[in-house]
Design brief:
- It is a single chain.
- By secondary structure, the chain is of the alpha+beta class.
- It has 2 domains: 140 residues, Alpha-Beta Plaits (2-Layer Sandwich), CATH 3.30.70; 76 residues, Double Stranded RNA Binding Domain.
- The chain contains 6 helices and 11 strands.
- The strands form 2 sheets. An 8-stranded mixed sheet has the order 2-3-1-5-4-9-10-11, with helices on both faces.
- β10 and β11 form a beta hairpin.
- It is globular.
- Belongs to the prokaryotic/mitochondrial release factor family.
């Protein structure tokens, strides 16, 4: 098992509040990674003006192979939040969603990618990073034509490094797609990790007014929601470990 995973978060239903929630989840996982002593590198993000993300991709690394995926694999799915947004003037509780995917990185030999199947384009990365990032076309966008999967990477300072990061993500997604196809052939009803982002596909609800997080798969409730959002995911992680052990 790899010592690296890809974390992908996408805003779902709920407009600006969904993007803000996606940003909250990204920061939660980043803080948890720091607490665990893991490496956390943002690969690509589509940030909004309200401290949120329409999409967010990061690479998490550990010195121990399999550790990260073992602890975070249950995070994949649709997360739902219920709270009063800062932009809400009437005090009404809003419901929004964001989807999370945890994908283990795979070695190049495990997934064969035909270069003729790729459409690679380059652009200026923009944002922080100095003159090289902003003036040279270092950002990479890869389209895998057979599947329609599009990967972008702009965090590194060179085209080569960004292309390698994008290829790592592409291989992880193709590997996951292959695994799902194999499981379906065996009669598995395993649902796709991301789903449509609809509220009905939720795996977990974050209810801020009642200070409660409910994981709907194991029927367990967790309190101290602010502490959990600050990166204290241990109660949730350990609950799933007890079930699988």
């Amino acid at each position: 098992m790899s010592n690296k995973v890809i974390l992908e978060i996408r805003a779902g239903v709920g407009g600006d509040e969904a993007a803000i929630f996606a940003g909250d989840l990204a920061r939660m996982y980043q803080r948890y990674a720091v607490n665990r002593g893991w490496g956390f590198k943002i690969v690509d993000s589509n940030e909004t003006s309200l401290r949120g993300y329409k999409s967010f991709v990061a690479q998490i690394t550990s010195v121990n192979p399999g550790e990260i995926y073992k602890d975070l694999k249950q995070e994949s799915g649709v997360h739902r939040v219920q709270r009063i947004p800062d932009t809400e003037r009437s005090g009404r509780v809003h419901t929004s969603t964001a989807s999370v995917a945890i994908l283990p990185e795979v070695e190049a030999k495990e997934v064969q990618v035909n270069e003729n199947d790729l459409e690679v384009t380059f652009s200026r990365a923009g944002g922080p990073g100095g003159q090289n990032v902003n003036k040279v076309e270092t950002a990479v966008r890869i389209l895998h034509k057979p599947t329609g999967i599009v990967i972008s990477s702009r965090a590194e300072r060179s085209q080569y490094a960004n292309r390698e990061a994008a290829m790592d993500i592409l291989r992880a997604k193709l590997y996951e797609a292959q695994r799902e196809a194999e499981e379906k052939k065996l009669g598995s009803n395993r649902r796709e990790q991301i789903g449509s982002g609809d509220r009905s596909e939720k795996i977990r609800t974050y209810n801020f007014p009642e200070d409660r997080i409910t994981d709907h798969r194991i029927g367990k409730k967790f309190h101290n929601i602010e502490k959990i959002m600050e990166g204290n995911l241990d109660p949730i992680v350990k609950s799933f470990q007890k079930i699988s052990s």
